[in-house]
């Protein structure tokens, strides 16, 4: 498959000077990205997640050419970003949720006009893209409003349109739904899905909102302390994180914690209700049969693992699991 983004043992080391006393400074190195390798084929929508300080923004900055890697090889559309940043700029779009690329005091449409000139977008293409983005992102009524007067959700949609006016082949999104309400999040996600299917735009999505990933990405990469610790399907994370399902049982009356065998354990008791954790990879049937045979069972339900808990456990365990490594 056509690899659009390629990283081969890419590293970024920052030199940090730390004050250790009067006139004394110690030089320390922070390895923000440590020998990361992956490829993303054209048209894929990939989640890039990790805890604070994991190295996500540093990776995106290297992909856009803002930062130069300290080691390894990196290519986007065959271009070395830090060497040919201007040429690459015409082929990529970037949205940083926490700050805007729009001109704060100007009406939204003026920012778009400026981008039209900056990117030298042919007139017909600019008009066609603008019309389409205004329609899809419902920006019609906002075009004459100064950016500073827009709500966060409106501003975000405005920023996404700005990043796409020049028809980039890849879109980097850093926290595109941060601070948005449920309706605005839904709109942004619908739009991204449509963009990806209609135009085949490659999307790399960084977010702390795992619902963004669940709803948009078939593949997810997890980075922790600069290392890629998982690369594969979202569903596979459950296995990698050794996740557990929960069996909730209602008994006729209060009992001491159920003795349910080696692979299940009671995690909570509240009156006649008990919660038992068991490996997500195992069937609940033998456990249910055993409890039903030995206790007066009234009702039961099985709860699926919470993806946030699975990922949190992965961060803690720092396992290196790459079941579906596309890195070559
Ligand atoms: N310019 C810099 N100089 C020194 N250290 C830096 C610099 N930029 C980032 N770092 C360090 O590199 C590490 C990775 O930071 P990065 O911003 O890439 O993380 P992140 O995954 O994007 O985190 P967050 O989710 O908090 O945005 C952190 O330890 C950070 O302090």
UniProtKB/TrEMBL annotation:
Cellular location(s): Cell membrane
Membrane topology: Peripheral membrane protein
UniProt-recorded Gene Ontology molecular function terms: ATP binding
Keywords from the named record: Antibiotic resistance, ATP-binding, Nucleotide-binding, Transport
PROSITE patterns: ABC_TRANSPORTER_2 (PS50893)
Major subcellular site: membrane
Entries under InterPro entries matching the protein: AAA+_ATPase (IPR003593), ABC_transporter-like_ATP-bd (IPR003439), ABC_transporter_ATP-binding (IPR050763), P-loop_NTPase (IPR027417)
Pfam families, per the entry: ABC_tran (PF00005)
ABC transporter domain sequence ranges: 11-250
Record-given protein name: ATP-binding cassette domain-containing protein
Protein's organism: Streptomyces vulcanius
Organism placement in taxonomy: Bacteria, Bacillati, Actinomycetota, Actinomycetes, Kitasatosporales
